[in-house]
Amino acid sequence: MEFLEELRLMKEQLKFEGRFRLPKNFSNVVLSGLGGSGISARIFQEIYSKKPVSLVEGYEIPDFVSPSTLFISMSYSGNTEEVLAAAKAAKKRKAHVVTISSHGLLEGYGDQHVKIPRPDLQPRSSLVYLLMPLLNSFGLAGPKEIRESYGLLSGLDGNPEECYRHARSIARSDAIPVIYGSFPFRAVAYRWKTQFNENPKILAYSSSFPELNHNDTMALAHTYKKNEFYFMVFASRDKRINDRIHVTEKLTRSKFNIINPKGTSQLSRILYLVHYGDYLSYKLSSIRGINPTDVSYIEKLKTMLKKPKEGRKA
Amino acid sequence: MEFLEELRLMKEQLKFEGRFRLPKNFSNVVLSGLGGSGISARIFQEIYSKKPVSLVEGYEIPDFVSPSTLFISMSYSGNTEEVLAAAKAAKKRKAHVVTISSHGLLEGYGDQHVKIPRPDLQPRSSLVYLLMPLLNSFGLAGPKEIRESYGLLSGLDGNPEECYRHARSIARSDAIPVIYGSFPFRAVAYRWKTQFNENPKILAYSSSFPELNHNDTMALAHTYKKNEFYFMVFASRDKRINDRIHVTEKLTRSKFNIINPKGTSQLSRILYLVHYGDYLSYKLSSIRGINPTDVSYIEKLKTMLKKPKEGRKA
Fold it and tell me: ipTM beyond 0.90?
């Protein structure tokens, strides 16, 4: 499928009613997911805070996983090896395991399964499909937020010009994008980083306020090669954070390109920014003449890992 | 104090016997800390997994914080505004609040306080002071690990030549350091990034295996300006991770500078790598002719934030 077509489908995913039943008396939540499928886990971790939420981004699970753990395994393909290993381990500890995938081996692993209705997207283009079951099950998205989000995503689909402007600026100097987020957009900043990696295939980095005021700030004032980077910063509704953004920019004589999230609800502001980054990174691929859907090296890597002898250095 | 003198003091901090009493029946742990003081929180979060551990890196605390939460506020100065705000909020929710600092306002905030015996270090040079109370209280460091760690840090103090070699390579091309960690060295990779920011004052970035195989990999294969970066990768004892490192390097035709952690225990391997990065970043400061202890911009920022009108753009 064409990448642009995938992007335009994102808003339709808001209608996905997939959900699971919350087990009685769970005391903590563990989300397992990597790459494109892991972003929805990160967004959920950032906005849900009624119980402790931990992320698993590898093969191993934490010691505390027990029957009182709600363990949610997320993999669009259903075949991510780290996620399968972690789900198996969680099952052994008798955690309540929920699996979310479009197909794949993961389907058989859990106590409950949520099936994503389309198996033909890029995992990173199914972000809303992976997010909705979490929002639906935990009661985090009402019809009003969904409607507002739908409108905002449609708006970007119809006119992504503002996003494209940044793509052209980045392309002009072959700049390395750096994205600065802050709550509730820390996961979104990381999402942008990964979209720059996978769509136009360039290195990119993200960090967040206020943490970066304790380290990056010194570098911003003194580093070599600052002009090789293109800084994009999400505006915040928290005055203390916005003060930090403006003071940091002024003090370190940096050029921050401020991105203003539209929307009134938290969810729609998050999804607006996600989609903004999708268009920006798509446009940069197209300027670079790079196919945004090509993830052949990630696939090759998986194949080579199955034959470790050939893959390893002597 | 001279920065090198501070570095040589790190091993002596292993003798710090500060600890706090674990409350009865706590069901989760929340650590609040930023910058240099936050690194110890991140290391603890990575190696302790008997209960869910969450990090707070801002003013706000999660909704689940309650009387069954062990809330640990960490600030070397005891005056970090985000940490003070979070401690106050945790107190209101009747969490069991432990404070760790060398002095400052934080001292009066908690149910228990651990006082760090020296107030005259850089916060980032007090990493082991901030870490030991956590290890001591949770029973994570026995005399054998402490002894081994002491020996390894002494070894680096006596001969940091290997670390210096990387500093010279980075300086030769004004490269931007990128550090790739993996469990149990994800926090260490981030520590290196922050040390590059604060000591030689250059931009630097970190990420971790296997997550980076789902995004950075495509960029490593295709990005512009790859030669502007200097990739350092921590070797792992997990064969699956080491396979990933070697396959990624080969497949994407990258140059990974492998750093081999010495030591047999997890703690000493972690601290060896931390200290390795300290020397590397110190040497780079000295080659650049930059004072590693100068954090004036971080201090100026704090002052300007207290007078927001002057700091803000019109």
Answer: yes
Is A255 within 8 Å of chain B by CB?
no
Please say if B166 is a catalytic residue. Answer: no
Distance from CA of A54 to the nearest CA of B (A): 7
Alpha-helix runs per DSSP H in chain A: 3-9, 35-47, 81-92, 127-138, 143-158, 161-172, 186-198, 216-222, 239-251, 266-288, 296-306, 308-311
Q: Do B47 and B184 touch, CB atoms closer than 8 A? A: yes
Cβ atoms B189, B179 nearer than 8 A: yes
Return the C-alpha torsion angle A266, A101, A96, B94, nearest 10.
-20
Q: What is the pLDDT of residues A284-307, one digit of tens each?
A: 999 999 999 998 998 899 899 987
Q: Does A68 touch chain B (CB under 8 A)?
A: no
CB nearest A34 (choices: B50, B214, B221): B214
Separation of alpha carbons B140 and B152, rounded Å: 18
What's the rounded Cα separation, in Å, for the pair B191 and B270? 11
Q: Is B145 a catalytic residue?
A: no
Report field, pTM of the whole predicted structure over 0.80: yes
- CA–CA min distance B108, chain A (Å): 24
Report d(CA B175, CA B235) in Å as an integer.
Answer: 21
d(C-alpha B309, C-alpha B306), whole Å: 9
